[in-house]
Amino acid sequence: MVTEQATIPKSKRSSDLTRFLIALAAIVLLNVLAANFFFRLDLTEDKRYTISPVTKQMLSQLPEPVFVEVYLEGEFPAGFKRLQQSVRETLDEFRIYSGGNVRYEFIDPNDISDEKQRTELFQKLAASGIQPTNLRANESGKQVERLVFPGARVLYKGKETGVMLLKGNLAASPDERLNQSVEGVEYELATAIRKMAFQGNKTIGYISGQGQLETQYVTDLLGSLQEFYRVARGELRNIPSLDGLDLIIIAKPTEAFTEADKYKIDQFIMNGGKAVFFVDALNANMDSVGAGGMFAMPYNLNLDDMLFRYGVRLNPTMIMDLNSGFIPIVTGYMGERPQTEMVNWRFYPLLNTFSKHPITRNIDAVYSKFIGTMDTVRADGIRKTPLVYTSVYSRVMQVPVPLTLEEARMEVKPEQYQAGPQPVGYLLEGAFASLFRNRRAPEGAANPQVRETGVPTKIAVFSDGDLVRNEVNPRTGQAYELGFDRYNNVTFANRELAMNTIHYLLDSEGLINVRSKEIQLRPLDRVRVKEERTYWQLLNLVAPIMLLGLFGVVRYYLRKRRYERF
């Protein structure tokens, strides 16, 4: 019996060779196209790996290399690893879109063996605004605490700035706060690079002359603004007009504005200028309260008609809130030495309810003092967005409001605090109508031709002048950081709120809108994970092996049937 050996036809060999050559040519062509036409695909639902167009444009215009030192190297729990990975991925994207002009390095500060050098680095990072946090981790089966600096330093042409990457609201859960930090990575790094590499060409005017906060009480705010913008200061009565400015700040005025002063502000806004008002409706201060008490009465600022025309009204009220700050009160004496105790002062509401607007998204609590309520009124064509609210446990006090330290010692009656969240800050956008419509310009006006309808612009109004007031060390005269509560050694997000507001008003490119990025947190059910742990471990270990074996058997059987010859 003779068995013929199976042979592969010549035509079959030629066909296989042709297919191989076509596949090889397609691969080469694909690589050539990929080298010349760059693109990236983000298939995630929330586009978590997508860099915004405004960031891409900024990175493409970098004149010289930027170096970023990230202090998130090492072994971390899963949440911090996610933040670490997000920073790495974002910087990879920055490097690509900048044409290699963004370079980075991850550093573990705890790896420095020399104790003196390690201490110096810790001090340098803290001075850059990168605050350390104690992180509990499991190492070799033991619970240990590590000092972590969740931030980065951005270096450019001999200059540097610190970037805090662990942000978010402290009232949120640890997982939620880490997720908020991940959402803000692109904005924080892009803002730092813009600050270093691109000189700001916008000018901000800090207006004085009506009893506004003196320079020593806005040192931190003005210093922070100077990192991004040019800042000018001057008394309104001595300035013919506000031409040449892009934005003005009016912080806690205590004296009346004249009609001529209001005309300058009004026409500045009509011509497209931006403005931020931090205004108290009532006169209240702790010096008078501590001296025996006082009644808070309305200021006569002569601003009500102008703000009303723009769409908001500051009410002659004061808010008390169960969610509030603390002040020291003398509770007794030991010999001649007074004994103090920190007590809840409900006239200092902690603002921790925000809209999802880019200005306030994911920021921490803001400290307010003697804050009042606000209403919106009809203003055609103006979009009004509330930004900040008090807590649900608030109480609205009508004028005159008695202020005495005895209030801090009184027993709280919860039924009195049922007013609900009260808006205390508004963003107004649109083409405003002039206060001087159908009126003559005040005598002596630099430009007596009234512009009655403005071009589209933006203004923001907050019902507390102290939101931007930094405390001053009574011994040294040095200004504290804006939002720092020296009695409780806590820093609130007042500076972030003010800076975000001004960035939004002046940001024609739209970088501030990157703060709107939202990444959905999808936590696992920990109880179910614990109950079904063995099942899922077996499924993940055994199922792939079984599928691979089944695939091999089926493939072997099909090949045998195809090539078997008798």
SSE layout and pairing:
Layout: H1 10-36, H2 53-60, E1 66-70, H3 78-97, E2 102-106, H4 115-127, E3 133-139, E4 142-148, E5 151-156, E6 159-164, H5 174-183, H6 185-197, E7 203-208, H7 219-226, E8 230-235, E9 247-251, H8 259-270, E10 274-278, E11 282-283, H9 286-290, E12 294-298, H10 304-310, E13 312-314, E14 317-321, E15 324-334, E16 337-351, E17 353-354, E18 366-367, E19 374-376, E20 383-389, E21 394-398, E22 401-403, H11 406-409, E23 423-430, E24 457-462, E25 484-485, E26 490-491, H12 494-506, H13 526-531, H14 533-563
Parallel strand pairs: 1-2, 7-8, 7-9, 9-10, 10-24
Antiparallel strand pairs: 1-5, 3-4, 5-6, 11-12, 12-22, 13-19, 14-21, 15-16, 16-18, 17-20, 20-23, 23-24, 25-26
Keywords: Membrane, Transmembrane, Transmembrane helix
Domain DUF7088: 45-153
Transmembrane segments: 20-39, 535-558
